[in-house]
Amino acid sequence: MAEVLLFHHSLGLTPGVEAFAETLREAGNVVHLPDLYEGRTFPDIESGMAYVQEIGFDTILTRGASVADGLPEDLVLAGFSLGVLPAQMLAQTREGAQGALLFSSCVPTSEFGDGWPLGVPVQVHGMDADPIFVDEGDLDAARALVQAAPGEAELFLYPGDRHLFADASLPSYDEHAARLLTERVIRFLDGIRA
């Protein structure tokens, strides 16, 4: 089995993120799902991001790193949108990372070091017309990652303009794209533990 540390998006630890984690567990994986917001949830991205601005992005990264400190090294780091920040940081900087899963976000690898670490496979998933993913530079960062880490990095684009399309508890949920994303993620995790 793979051991996954999964970080929630800017709305907090929603039922949809919990359901996604449970699906990965049902496929035979161990999934850790910390609450970086300490119990808070928000109705929309704007209010969730206002809270992040209030506490600071560094707090999110610190909380993510603190959770990882208590877990084994050989983790797959995963995150939805905002949760990509701690996931990508840990994948690039923590010894023993087994892989990374970046949903609806990707930042330039220069944010956390000199590039993507050798031997750490990564998948990036996003919608091809999502204004946050496309217009804020995430798609460019994902394409650069794929180019810089051939054979390690994969980019999967889904038709549509929804940001949090894999969270079944939100109006932005896209069942077809979410099902395909989940299938690809489970295959990825099966490859990690093979």
Automatic annotation (TrEMBL):
A single MF term (Gene Ontology): hydrolase activity
Record carries keyword Metal-binding: no
Pfam short name (any one): DLH
Coiled coil: none
Entry keywords, A to Z: Hydrolase
InterPro entries in alphabetical order: AB_hydrolase_fold (IPR029058), Dienelactn_hydro (IPR002925), Dienelactone_hydrolase-like (IPR051049)
Domain Dienelactone hydrolase: 4-190
Keyword Hydrolase belongs to the record: yes
PANTHER family in the cross-refs: ALPHA_BETA-HYDROLASES SUPERFAMILY PROTEIN, CARBOXYMETHYLENEBUTENOLIDASE-RELATED
Protein name: Dienelactone hydrolase family protein
Species whose genome carries this gene: Oerskovia douganii
